[in-house]
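Cross-check.
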Amino acid sequence: MGHLDHATFGWLTPTLSYAMAVIGAALGLRCTVRALASTGRSRRNWLLTAASALGTGIWTMHFVAMLGFGVSGTEIRYDVPLTILSLVVAMAVVGAGVFAVGYGRDRGRALALGGLTTGLGVASMHYLGMAALRLHGEVTYDPVLVGLSVVIAVIAATAALWAGLNIKSPVAVAVASLIMGAAVSSMHYTGMLAVGVDVSPAAAGALSGATAMQFIFPLAVGLGSYLFLTSAFVALSPTAGEREASAAAQRPMESALR
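Predicted model, tokenized:
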């Protein structure tokens, strides 16, 4: 058994990965609040932004954490197509859950369906990302901890969607985002505790795939930048209430000019 180190850079990668999860959750919740206050194309666009933010935040959290993952006795590479597929799965399944809540007529049923779908999608993203690992050895899993990580993912996703439906104030969204970030991080590290590696001799041949610094790091930086830029856009975009107030303020001025 190889020794697994989940924080080869100390607290840097766990802290950064938690920050990515919090930012993604905060942005996703704010966009969901905007979506529920909108109709038509505007609602659809806000829900798409919410789905991309949540999916990107969860994926970036996972792979920033994986930058600190090491196994004694072997190098680690990542299969590029599988890693990209895990990102697509994260966005697609989170999107399905967000749209189920955004357009569901029966809120309770929509929340249950959306939470289950999104949670299973988050877990699928995690284990697809783990399947992309290439190392000298065999990766094994503790089925009990795997099952626990899936349960945590479903609970976290359901809680996030519930928050999107019921929490409106920025302060409440901030608190919910901190909790959601902790839940997503807990799911990740529970899943990582399930991992064991039987290391084979390094002479087994060259590993295929890209190193974390060649592929994962630049992609994570790009997606993290997307989250920050989208956060700025959402923060600067007026809410429906602010637009109505602005329109109401302009009416007397327009009447006076006529």
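Strands lie at 4-5, 70-71, 76-78, 133-135, 137-141, 195-199. Helices lie at 12-36, 40-66, 80-103, 107-131, 143-166, 170-193, 212-236, 240-257. Passed to J.P. for a second look.
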